[in-house]
Amino acid sequence: MKLLVTGGAGYIGSVVAAQLVEAGHQVTVLDDLSTGHADAVPAGARFVEGSITDAADALAGMDGVLHFAARSLVGESVREPALYWNHNLGGTLALLDAMRAAGVGRIVFSSTAAVYGEPERSPIEESDPTRPTNPYGASKLAVDTALTAFAGVYGLAAVSLRYFNVGGAHTARDGRSYRERHTVETHLIPNVLAVALGGRESVDVFGTDYPTADGTCVRDYIHVADLARAHLLALDACAPGEHKVYNLGSGAGFSVREVIEVCRDVTGHAIPAVVRERRPGDPAVLVASSAKIQRELGWKPERTTLPEIVADAWAALPR
Ligand code: UFG
């Protein structure tokens, strides 16, 4: 297929773009490089530097879109909600309009666990209530809602993948490595590994008074290569007039303290930790049931254990 990958110069988008190229698709990456890196675009993909609000030219002749381009930090979204509503909702609506105008009827959308807010039960299923606790989750949920309506009325073929916490690095068949490298890093695993690498003295632990076993937040970590493979299955599962929604996680929860402990084991470094205040917008526990995508699309995680995720992220760091 001819595919447009928005945000394909970012961490997850570049891994998916690499897997799509390997699978024989013709891939064009559209990215404004606001958080991505031009050198993350895989060899074999065409790169267009630009915004999702101006995608008409890039969309010409496409069979489908994989839409990653977004702001994706919970804390930043609490401080700067306008950024999230404008970019994630406004930008995506503009992209969907341009798709309709260009006759492109298939989309795989990066949704998020953050749509569920504070869940009532764990693991979370796709039919559970969606009550986001931050603008990031709310903006993604608004797009999911629009996709359902667009599928019903305009015949769009849409799949939303609700990612839980993505980590690790991917080595492509050509030996190239794809890793997380945000200019301002807020994610737990890279921040912990930065301490092991010597770039920082200690890692912050945001809140130790959550209603969890050790008081720190619990998250469900999924390997970026496993997550990426789900997109290829989702692309094939797109059906006109349907909007399918799938969680993507491992079904296992790890606390912040447990993640730091695994990082100590993997790296052999002491990694001092300092307790800080809670970070606004963080739910206590987010763990996915991925039974639906396993059952319906045959997805199976291959490298999703926390030690494998951490080991791959650690091995990919430049020294
Ligand atoms: N944390 C720390 N110290 C740090 C960084 C994070 O204690 O230096 C804590 C956070 O407070 C949180 C947990 O570690 O409790 C995980 O935080 P991340 O920033 O790694 O990830 P989030 O859970 O906030 O968010 C990520 C993605 C979102 C997605 C969400 C779904 O960034 O896009 O997972 O679970 F919505």
TrEMBL record:
Reaction(s) this enzyme catalyzes, per UniProt: UDP-alpha-D-glucose = UDP-alpha-D-galactose
The pathway entry for this protein reads as: Carbohydrate metabolism; galactose metabolism
* EC identifiers of the protein: 5.1.3.2
Keywords attached to this Swiss-Prot or TrEMBL record, sorted alphabetically, are: Carbohydrate metabolism, Isomerase, NAD
- SUPFAM superfamilies per record: NAD(P)-binding Rossmann-fold domains
Catalytic class of the enzyme: isomerase
Cofactor list: NAD(+)
Source domain of life is Bacteria
Q: Where is the NAD-dependent epimerase/dehydratase domain?
A: 4-249
Matching InterPro entries: Epimerase_deHydtase (IPR001509), NAD(P)-bd_dom_sf (IPR036291), UDP_G4E (IPR005886)
Q: Name one Pfam family in it.
A: Epimerase
Q: How does it assemble?
A: Homodimer.
Say which family it is in: Belongs to the NAD(P)-dependent epimerase/dehydratase family.
PANTHER family hit by this protein: UDP-ARABINOSE 4-EPIMERASE 1, UDP-GLUCOSE 4-EPIMERASE
Protein name in the entry = UDP-glucose 4-epimerase
What species is given as this protein's source? Streptosporangium pseudovulgare
Q: What is the lineage of its organism?
A: Bacteria, Bacillati, Actinomycetota, Actinomycetes, Streptosporangiales
Q: Which gene encodes it?
A: galE
